[in-house]
Amino acid sequence: MVNSVAEADREDGELKLLVPVHDVPGPELSIVIPALNEELTIGQFVEWCQEGLRCAKVRGEILIIDSSSDRTTEVALSKGARVLKAPKRGLGRAYIDAIPFIRGNYIVMGDADCTYDFRDLKPFLESFRSGYEYVMGSRFRGYIEPGSMPSLHRYFGTPVTTWLLNVLYASRFSDIHCGMRGITRDALCRMDLQSQSWEYASEMVLKSVHMGLKTAEVPVRFYRDSEGRLSHHKRSGWFSPWQAGWINLRAMLVNGVDFFVLKPGLILLGLGLLLTLPLAGGPVTVGPITFSLHWMLAGLALTIFGLQSFCFGCIAQVLYDYSGQSTKRWLSVFRYSRSMVCSGLAFLAGLAFIAPLVIEYWKLSFRLPQEALFRLSHLAVIGLLLISAAFINYAFTLLLHATALYVKPKSPASH
What we know:
Blueprint: E1 10-12, E2 15-18, E3 29-35, H1 42-56, E4 60-66, H2 72-78, E5 82-85, H3 91-98, E6 106-109, H4 122-129, E7 134-144, H5 151-169, E8 181-184, H6 185-191, H7 200-210, E9 215-222, H8 232-236, H9 239-255, H10 257-276, E10 284-286, E11 289-291, H11 293-320, H12 325-333, H13 336-363, H14 370-406
Parallel strand pairs: 3-4, 3-6, 4-5, 7-9
Antiparallel strand pairs: 1-2, 2-5, 6-8, 7-8, 10-11
Helix pairs in contact: 7-9, 10-11, 11-14, 13-14
């Protein structure tokens, strides 16, 4: 298909951009689609995209990131799409590779298998022009053709993971795994995608929340695979959907680590202090239960776990910080000089609480009679708590300020 390719082709390392003869200059909208051996559907898909662009009355380009070994490239070029030839290295990596070659201000992503209806692009364009930066498609608010989605995914997997994300982030998505979605080019560049495979979808959703992107959701139509075509999961075997689900869950946990450690840390910290501080003067009986030294040691452990978890959550928020507000807040709370002085005072106070037990132990020839243990051990546990908290706060303060120094907010101005 040499005659269907213009002279504007260019190579960039392992990537090669092929441009059709009748290319579209200055597109406002870019349809960016990874493809792997989609010879059967790619021609119809490009025609659907062109119809969608005409109906939406927008100048647009179709960019196929192709890692195929069949005739996908030739067919796409003959239909008028740009093709970025790239090595096969994952769905998420395909989008990362495509960013320097995207010309439109707005981007619509999806699949090249004609399961998503790209003939209806108007809702995406209207949302972009209304100021939305991230436009999520929703099959549940649109149409799902019978047989197009496995029952396990439709009635369990997708609803449960969508509900979980909405609970974690107070978002209102109805279909976080929808493959058809839109984003502005500026937001995609700032998002700094890292995922190499299927988990890019979860990373995008989570980062859109972290970034505070103005988000809309539009209905989309979802169809069954074309006759004779096998989905990529079916091509890869029965384990592929489970693997995709696992790596998507990993992306949700990694990109949402602050939720899983900061708030639980505060709960553990509060519970630990509740078990520890009231017992400083000795055992306390509440009804049939006597809270004594063993309860106090359990409270000490919970307090240390909770404080560490809270500190990890603060660091995570700084790493995720796109606006600079979280960094500013935690640096204000944990000012270097004040935090170091507090750590030093807590350490000295801890030593003061432990000292009587150590002195008694030394006086009694390194033995502790039961009465001495009863009198002094509760205060010593408080001392251990203060020393542990002092060290954790000291280390956390250093790490927080170092992280803030080297991790800059991902603001629009930085791109």
